[in-house]
């Protein structure tokens, strides 16, 4: 009887290590430098804009500083942080006939390794969505307070950050160009992913899905 009991339990293995390791990988920041600069330039631009009257009396100096920060942010988010943090990329290509094509790429799902952790994905999308909304608030604030000299800078901030947001949402949605469908699909996917994160897979490392427009 003892021998039978030992045999029945011999092949049973409870491997809690893999679950703990998977949870650790999801919470880990795998690209700390990219994550830092994903937020650094856009947050610095907002702080500089808000504190311009305190830091400096020069309107031109503040204008140029904020515009440079916005430009650095646009370049880094478009070319570096999106590719590393969530496996997405978009750009414009001119073909031999001179026609312009917008290309949206998303890495295919790989079962072996996760390219983007949940922590990185949350930081990426949070920074990408919240900051343009702040610039929209600045727009109405400048308009209603009649600080019209700042409107050009605020519009530049909205345009640059909204362009990255729109491009990455199209990458996420597979290149769908109908903005109403994109918005509805993206919001619904975001809500369900927040409620049930384990049911969704992050982009993997191998292969790319390419969509041209």
Walk me through the topology.
Elements: H1 2-10, H2 16-27, H3 32-50, H4 52-55, H5 59-85, E1 88-94, E2 100-107, H6 118-144, H7 151-172, H8 179-195, E3 208-212
Antiparallel strand pairs: 1-2, 2-3
How would you sum up this structure, described in words?
The chain contains eight helices and three strands; from the N terminus they run H-H-H-H-H-E-E-H-H-H-E. By secondary structure, it is mainly alpha-helical. Strands 1-2-3 form a three-stranded antiparallel beta sheet. Mean pLDDT is 76; it is low at 1-17 and 190-208. It holds the Pfam family DUF846. InterPro entries: TVP23-like. It is a multi-pass membrane protein. Its main location: membrane.
Characterize the largest beta sheet: strand count, sense, and whether it forms a barrel.
Answer: 3 strands, antiparallel
Overall shape: globular
Summarize model confidence as the mean pLDDT. 76
Strand content: 5-15%
What tags apply to this protein structure?
213 residues, mainly alpha, three-stranded antiparallel beta sheet, 8 helices, 3 strands, globular, disordered N terminus
Overview in brief:
Belongs to the TVP23 family. The chain has 213 residues and is mainly α.
């Amino acid at each position: 009887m003892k021998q039978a009991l030992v045999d029945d339990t011999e092949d049973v293995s409870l491997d809690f290590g893999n679950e703990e390791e998977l949870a650790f990988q999801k919470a880990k920041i795998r690209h700390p430098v990219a994550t830092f600069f994903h937020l650094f330039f856009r947050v610095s631009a907002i702080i500089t804009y808000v504190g311009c009257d305190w830091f400096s009396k020069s309107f031109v100096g503040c204008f140029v500083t904020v515009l440079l920060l916005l430009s650095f942010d646009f370049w880094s988010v478009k070319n570096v942080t999106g590719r590393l943090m969530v496996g997405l990329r978009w750009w414009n290509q001119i073909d031999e006939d001179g026609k312009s094509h917008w290309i949206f790429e998303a890495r295919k799902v790989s079962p072996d390794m996760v390219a983007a952790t949940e922590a990185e994905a949350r930081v990426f999308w949070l920074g990408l969505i919240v900051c343009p909304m702040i610039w929209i608030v600045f727009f109405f604030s400048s308009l209603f307070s009649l600080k019209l000299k700042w409107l050009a800078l605020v519009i530049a901030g909205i345009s640059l950050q909204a362009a990255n947001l729109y491009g990455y949402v199209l990458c996420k949605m597979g290149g769908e160009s109908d903005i109403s469908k994109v918005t509805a699909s993206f919001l619904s996917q975001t809500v369900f992913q927040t409620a049930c994160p384990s049911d969704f897979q992050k982009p993997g490392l191998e292969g790319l899905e390419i969509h041209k427009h």
